[in-house]
Give the backbone structure.
Amino acid sequence: MDKPKIFDNTIMIPSSQDFLPDVDVFLEGVLRGFGIDESIIADIAISVSELVNNAIFHGNKTVRDKPIAVKINKKKGAVEITVIDEGNGFDINTVENPIDDDNLLKEVGRGLFIVRSLMDSLSLKTSESGTSVIITKNI
């Protein structure tokens, strides 16, 4: 895969930060099409950016040929976004709290904390084909 592919409410990108602006433009366009308030769009965009970065670096290990998919669905009273990579997954309960004293000076580890702060739910599903992180925001 050498460039983003868009179909329905899904964008697929190569595992490279070069394509983060494409995800952002796609995401914001779909969310505006749903009639979602700009402040909520901002929270979702920040969260998705964090998750796509995690998918690039931790899930797909920056192997450009491994795609990342971002799917957006509007459900009754909420928006659900799924970020899918080809990684082996992780135990979400073992992610250290970045505001604990021992972690304050670490340069990494704040992404999921930010996502949890901005979104209404976060869950993880792992399968043989990869990892899906699902976030929802009530609208």
The CA atoms of residues 74 and 80 lie 6 Å apart. Helices lie at 20-33, 38-59, 111-118.
